[in-house]
Write a structure and sequence with these properties.
With 403 residues, the protein is an alpha+beta fold. It has eleven helices and 18 strands. The two termini are 29 Å apart.
């Protein structure tokens, strides 16, 4: 009896599901769609300044990027592998900040200075072998004064040894997408296998500002005093421009003079990387020129706010048939001033979406183009969890998916 009932029920369900699938509204948002985002435009033909070419920078490699999106606004050999010199300490700091965040290290903890750290070549914080120095002092020594001895002492404390710490540095570099980077030491000594790129260093700088805002203020310190020794920051732009709040200098004979700068003006942050300049003045002037160029000729356009719905695709086998998807963070891109109408977006969802569907699962992508060129790809997430539906819903949707 049950067998005969099932033989009659299953075809009926198939017919019903086919009719349901045909009649169900095909929500346009379940398929890739395109939309335009237009920035407010001032009236008149002279509202925006004519676009100019990037400034001529007296350096081998450089790049100017928008902090919020990572978008490159100007660059020259930004992907060429070069010696990073003391800019290496940005990654050393990233690893140390990670240990502080995770509770594996404390700012008030005292670190025993080894002979290896004490004998460090190059710039020094003048820590003495066998003494114990607070982590906070060593961090300032690494960042403000660029001390190799302070950096090595921190590396030994966090990694157990400098080589083990360097392995952590390279692991974080891969995690951040710094595919043109490899480190051999914690402080930045010259080596054929110790290299990075201007673009990778910009990526690292953005990560420090984004992931560790509680420590980023150290990069704007002009000086500090420890053990009756006054240590000065070598970044001259901190004195020249009040909007500049970091980040790091570097120099060796082979690397030339290097500087990574970041400035915040009217809520917009830019990061410039200048590598291989011939003098301190050249690296500072080049960095200042790049920042001025970016602020003069570009403006930020917010494409989507954090949590703002982009699509509302179909969800199968769930308690809800549709779910809104959105970016976790605000989506902002840079455009030449007055050209906000050139921003277009295209969104897509990887389907079909099946319940249970957690809100933390990336299910699609928002692609942002400026004047036809893709400048950002942002993952989209459900704004809420979608629980698994009941037996009837799961059965109906399973049959619907066959069609």
């Amino acid at each position: 009896m049950k067998s005969s009932y099932c033989k009659l029920l299953i075809p009926a369900l198939m017919v019903f599901a086919a009719a349901y699938a045909a009649a169900a509204p095909r929500h346009a948002a379940s398929r890739p769609t395109a939309s335009r985002q237009t920035a407010p435009q001032p009236a008149g033909p002279a509202a925006a300044p004519p676009m100019a070419a990037p400034p001529a920078i007296e350096a081998r490699n450089w790049v100017l990027v928008d902090f919020a999106s990572g978008q490159s606004l100007a660059e020259n050999y930004a992907d060429q592998r070069v010696e990073p010199a003391s800019l290496t300490k940005l990654m050393s700091a990233y690893v140390v900040f990670s240990a502080l965040r995770d509770g594996r290290l404390k700012m008030n903890e005292e670190v025993l200075i080894s002979e290896h750290a004490w004998r460090a070549e190059g710039s020094r914080t003048f820590v003495q072998v066998g003494t114990r120095v607070p982590v906070e002092v060593l961090v300032k020594g690494m960042i403000v004064q660029s001390g190799n001895d302070a950096t090595i002492a921190l590396a030994e404390r966090v990694g157990g040894s400098e080589p083990a710490f360097v392995q952590m540095m390279n692991a974080y570099a891969l995690r951040l997408g710094m595919n043109g980077t490899h480190f051999e030491d914690a402080s930045g000594l010259p080596s054929p296998t110790h290299y990075s790129t201007a673009r990778d260093l910009a990526t690292l700088s953005r990560a420090i500002i984004r992931d560790f805002p509680q420590y980023y203020g150290i990069y704007s310190m002009r000086e500090y005093t420890w053990n009756n020794i006054r240590q000065e920051n070598r970044n001259g732009l901190l004195e020249r421009d009040s909007t500049v709040d970091g980040i790091k200098t570097g120099h060796t004979d082979s690397a030339g003079y290097c500087l990574i700068s970041s400035a915040l003006r009217s809520g917009m942050r830019l990061v410039s990387v200048v590598l291989g300049a011939k003098s301190v003045g050249a690296r500072e002037s080049g960095s200042a020129a790049l920042l001025t160029y970016g602020y003069n000729f570009y403006e930020a356009v917010t494409v989507k706010n954090a949590g703002e719905m982009v699509l509302k695709p179909r969800v199968y086998k769930g308690t809800e048939q549709y779910v809104a998807v959105a970016p976790i963070n605000a989506v902002q891109v840079m455009v030449p001033r007055g050209q906000g109408t050139t921003v277009t977006t295209r969104a897509s969802v990887r389907g079909p979406l099946l319940a249970p569907l957690p809100a933390g699962t990336a299910v699609g992508e928002l692609q942002v183009d400026v004047a036809g060129k893709t400048v950002a790809r942002v993952p989209l997430y459900p704004v809420a969890d979608v629980a698994e539906g009941g037996l009837w819903r799961r059965m109906i949707d399973t049959i619907s998916l066959w069609f």
